[in-house]
Amino acid sequence: MKQFILRKTLIAFVVWCFIAAKVSATEGMWLPLLLEQLNEDEMKSMGLKITAKDIYDINNGSLKDAIVRFGNGCTAEIISDKGLLLTNHHCGYGQIQYHSSVEHDYLKDGFWAETQEDELANPGLTATFIVRIEDVTDKVLEGVKPGASESDRADHVKKNIEKIKEEAVKGTHYEAVIKPFFYGNKYYMFITETFKDVRLVAAPPSSIGKFGADTDNWMWPRHTGDFSIFRIYAGKDNKPAEFSLENVPYKPRKSLTISINEEKEGDFTMVYGFPGRTQEYLISDAVDYILNK
Q: Which residues in the chain land under pLDDT 50?
C-alpha cells in the first residue's frame, strides 16, 4: 500500500481499489472524502466510470449510503429499495446459529424466509451508516501546547473530542465517533446512523457458505458461497427504531444492483467497506521493535 494510505482504526470507512488486469494491485486505503482531492484522476485513468461524488457525497445519495457497518465490524451492502442487506456468511453466522435448533438446523440446512413475516429478529444486531466524515484535527488539537507531556496532551485531546462529539450530534438521533490517523497527527469525525432492527432473510447451508472453513480460507483463493442476507427495518418515519412488528422495511438513499455480466480482464475493481487497520506509516524504529523485541 504505497500512496495516500491512511492508518485507520476500526470505524474508518475506506475504499480499496485495484486493477484486475494486474497480478498485484495498485494498492491503497483511502477515506472517501479525500478521493476527489487525491485519487479521482488516477482512478479514472484505471477505468473508473463514475465520479468521486458518486462514491461519497453528503448532500445526495452516493455509494456511501449503500455500504453498511454490519454488527461489530463486518461490511454489508444494501441491494434493494426495501432494505435488503448482503454480507458474508461468517458475518451472519452468529445470528444463523442463534436461530438454529434440533428441529430447525439452519446452520446445516440453510434458511430462506418466503415472506417478510418469516424474517427472523436478531436482538443486539445493528447496521450503521456513515452520514458524513469531517476532518476535525484543528479542533481536537486546539489548546495543546507544543512540548506538552504525552499524558497532558492525551487529557486535552480527550476533553476536546468529547466536546466536539456532543456539539456535532446535538438535537439529532445520530452518533459521533472521532478517531486518530497518522498516529495522532490527523483526526476524523464519523457521524453515524445506527439501525437496531435487523432481521435474517436468507443463508445457505454451512456446507456452501462455510465450505473449507478457516483452513481453506487462509490457504487458497475463496471458493465458497460465502453470503447471508438480512433486512433493515425502521420506524414509519424511516428512522432507526427498536424492534417492533409495526416497523417497515428501510428505504435507503442508495441501493446497489448486482451485475450478471461477465467480468473482463482489465475491468476496474473497487472495494468499499470497513476493513481492520493498516500501519503503513509505522516508523522504522517501531518496525524494528515489533520484529526484534
A: 1-12, 17-24
Residue 27: per-residue pLDDT? 64
Q: What is the pLDDT of residue 258?
A: 85
- Taking Cα atoms as reference points, which of 107, 102, 59 lies closest to residue 209? 107
Q: Please provide the DSSP assignment of the chain as one string.
A: --SS-----TT--EEEEEETTSSS-----B-GGGHHHHTHHHHHHTT--S-HHHH--SSS--GGGGEEEETTTEEEEE-STT-EEEE-HHHHHHHHHHH--SS--HHHH-EE-SSGGG-EE-TT--EEEEEEEEE-HHHHHTTPPTT--HHHHHHHHHHHHHHHHHHHHTTSS-EEEEEEEGGGTEEEEEEEEEE-EEEEEEE--HHHHTTTHHHHHTTS---S---EEEEEEE-TTSS---S-TT-EE---S-------SPP-TT-EEEEEE------TT--HHHHHHHHH-
Longest dimension (CA), the chain: 65
The confidence score (pLDDT) of residue 177 equals 97
So what's the pLDDT on residue 16? 53
